[in-house]
Amino acid sequence: MSARRASVAGLLLALVTHAAAADTVGFDRFVRYLGPLCNEAASTLCFEAAFAHVDSDGDRTLTVAELERVRGDLRAWSSEAGPSLPPAERNGIALGLWVVDTVGLAPLVAAYDVDGDGRLTPAEMTADVRLDDRRLAAVVRDPDSVDWASLRQRFGLLAGLLDPLAPPGR
Fold this sequence. Notes:
Helix content: 55-70%
Distance between the termini: 20 Å
Strand content: under 5%
Order of helices and strands: HHHHHHHHH
């Protein structure tokens, strides 16, 4: 996987993902389950599994608190697992976390929260990504699967943060 694709994947993971007590063991189990699933199954199934993991109360929506918990778990897990991760994956996770930390989870949620209820539905979460029956890697490699113009609009003045992730000319 190229560094750009790994960065996009890291950003997506970080978006669907600072808790005081991070659950690195549980998160490691989740990564070991999700990795093979996302490498073999349709991107829609990969997203549904990730969404269900983050949705700790099972209400089919994500709150800032749920996303903060998973971001903390991801940060702690990547600190522990970092040395064993391939450099492209390690860099992708770091870049994704940096973008989310720079923009902030609350503003990101607000940018996608169409109905203004402070929660993200699966449809709101994937507004700028066209998931389908292809594996996630194929979706990420396809420049037409991400609506880069919409992403830039949502990021506003911070849209330049997306430049290292976008394909040339997007």
